[in-house]
Design goal:
The chain has about 170 residues and is an all-alpha fold. The chain has helices spanning about 1-15, 50-55, 60-65, 75-85, 100-105, 105-115, 140-145, and strands at about 25-30, 45. It has 7 helices and 2 strands, in the order H-E-E-H-H-H-H-H-H. Residues about 15-20 have low confidence and may be disordered.
Length: about 170
């Protein structure tokens, strides 16, 4: 009997039928998602969600990257979990290391272009000459409120994960 049932299931699967396998069902996004394991299928965003993740995460990108990891072991699902939980996020995706931008390029490239206006392959040039800044003076009332200013510059070391990809290991 077992062999007969197995043969029927195999035939059904060959024809494209059969029950959905675990992980095939779409997953509604929102704060109920608590951990990576909750992303068992394609994340579905409500129509009013405006994050760049929601606009760029297609079924094709999901199929390509859902099981991908960068060279530091940071997974694609880790990269998108926060944006799937916090649907009011503007961007919704994090790089775990410099390699995340390459490993998950199908997701990151369009987001970077939309957010920063830089296409893949374009070179960013920095000009640190403060005399070229176009910054009009503050109105007097606003200027009186400014007591101090702080500028933070963060730098990651090559070949080390970025903050979201740091682990205890």
């Amino acid at each position: 009997m077992y062999d007969g049932v197995k043969a029927m299931i195999d035939a059904e699967n060959e024809l494209g039928g059969g029950a959905a396998q675990a992980g095939d069902a779409d997953v509604q996004t929102g704060p109920h998602l608590k951990k990576i394991e909750d992303l068992t299928g394609f994340p579905v965003f409500d129509k009013d969600v405006k994050s760049l993740l929601s606009k760029n995460l297609t079924r094709e990108v999901w199929a390509e990257l859902k099981d991908a990891k960068d060279k530091h072991g940071f997974t694609f699902k880790e990269a998108i979990l926060s944006g799937c939980q916090n649907v009011d996020s503007g961007i919704g995706v994090y790089a775990g290391s410099q390699d995340s931008y390459t490993a998950f390029a199908a997701m990151f490239d369009p987001i970077i272009e939309q957010y920063h206006g830089h296409k893949k392959g374009e070179k960013h040039t920095s000009d640190m000459d403060h005399t070229k800044l176009k910054c009009p003076p503050f109105p007097e009332e606003d200027a009186k409120m400014i007591v101090s200013t702080r500028i933070r510059v963060g730098r990651n070391l090559a070949e080390f994960p970025l903050a979201p990809g740091v682990t205890k290991d």
